[in-house]
Amino acid sequence: MAPPGWLTTRRRSATARSVLAGEAAAEAARKTSQQLEQEREEASAAEAAAEAAEPEFPVVGDTRAAAFFDLDNTVMQGAAIFHFGRGLYKRKFFQRRELARFAWAQVWFRLAGVEDPEHMQEARDSALSIVKGHRVSELMSIGEEIYDEYMADRIWPGTRALAQAHLDAGQKVWLVTAAPVETAAIIARRLGLTGALGTVAESVDGVYTGKLVGELLHGPAKAEAVRALAAAEGLDLARCAAYSDSHNDIPMLSLVGHPYAINPDTKLRRHARDRDWRLRDYRTGRKAAKVGIPAAAGVGALAGGTAAALALHRRRR
Questions:
Q1: pLDDT of residue 14
Q2: What is the DSSP annotation of 171-239?
Q3: Three-class SS of residue 261?
C-alpha cells in the first residue's frame, strides 16, 4: 500500500516538471527567434550588398544576348494552368470535381513553393481531357479573356521590371514554361515580350486531340528548348540570362552566363548561394515594399486560396 500523501507529492512533482518543460520551451523559442531574426537580417544585408556590387546588366546593344524567364511563380504568382482552369470552369468546360483538383494543385504549389511532378502530371492530364475536341482558335480567344480575369493582376512587378530591362537594352525576352504554348504566347504578347516556349498539345485540322507532342516542357526539356532556340537565333548562351523560382530549372539556369534565382524554393536558393548566382525574392517584406507589393496582400491571397480549396474538399466529402 502506498504511503500517505504519495499522490499529492506525485502531482506536485508532475506540476514542477510541467513548469520546467514550459520554461525550457519558452527559452528555446526565444533563442530560436533571435537566431532566425539575425539570419534574416544577414541574408537581407548580403542580398542588398550583392545588388549594389553588380555591374551594369543587361548590356545595351548586345544582340547575341537574350533572357529566358520561367513563368509560374517567377513572372506570375501561382500556376498558369490553374488560372486557365478557373476560367474554363467559369465557362462550364468541366464540373466542380475537376476544379477541386486544380485548386488542390494550386494550394500545394503556393504553400510548398515547388513544382511537384505528381501534381503537374494530374494538372496536365486534366487540362488535356478538358480541351480535347475543342478548336485551337476557340481556346486562344478564351485565353485572352482569362488573362484579363485571372492573370494580369498576378504578374510580379519586380520580375516584370527585369524583363523590361532586357527589352530596353535591345535584347529578346522569352517565356519558358510547362504551361500550354498557346497560354504562354498570350502572356508573352500581353507583357510585350518576344515570344514563348511552352508545352505543345497535338491538334489535327485545328482541333485538339487530347495528346501531347513529346512531353511537358519541364526540367531538362526546358534546357533543351533554350539550347535549340539559342542555336536558331544565333545567341551566345554565355551572354544570356535565365530566371526561375524552381530547382527543377537548374538545367536551364546552368546553361547561361547570367542565372537568376527568383522567389526561389529551398533547393534552388541553396544551389544559387553555393554558386554565387544572383537572388531576387519579391515575396519578402523588404522586396515587396521595394517593388510596391503589399506583403499582407500576398498572405491574404494565400489564405483565401487555401480556404477555397478546403471548402471544395469538404463538399466533395
A1: 64
A2: -EEEEEEEEEHHHHHHHHHHTT-SEEEEEPEEEETTEEEEEESSS-S-THHHHHHHHHHHHHHT--GGG
A3: strand
Query: Rounded to an integer, what distance in angstroms lies between the CA atom of residue 124 and that of residue 214?
Result: 13
Q: Which residues contact 139 (CB under 8 A, 6 or more apart)?
A: 131, 182, 208
Question: Would you say residue 33 lies in a domain?
Answer: no
pLDDT single digits (tens) 78-118: 888 888 888 888 888 776 655 555 555 544 444 444 555 55
Q: Is 70 an active-site residue?
A: yes
The three grid cell numbers given for residue 59, joined into one nine-digit string: 548590356
Q: Is the pLDDT of residue 293 over 50?
A: no
Confirm whether 72 is a catalytic residue.
yes
Alpha-carbon distance of 154 to 4, in angstroms, equals 70
* Annotated catalytic residue within 72, 249, 265, 281: 72
Looking at every residue in the chain, the average pLDDT score rounds to 77
Kindly state whether residue 293 falls inside one of the protein's structural domains: yes
Residue type, 160: R
Whether 5 maps to a domain, the answer reads no
Range of the domain at 204: 63-316
* Active-site residue, from 70, 245, 249, 265: 70
What's the whole-number mean pLDDT along residues 197-209? 90
How far is it, in rounded angstroms, from Cα 233 to Cα 172? 10
Q: Cell 536558393 identifies what position?
A: 269
Domain count for the chain, please give it.
Answer: 1
Q: Is 92 inside any structural domain?
A: yes
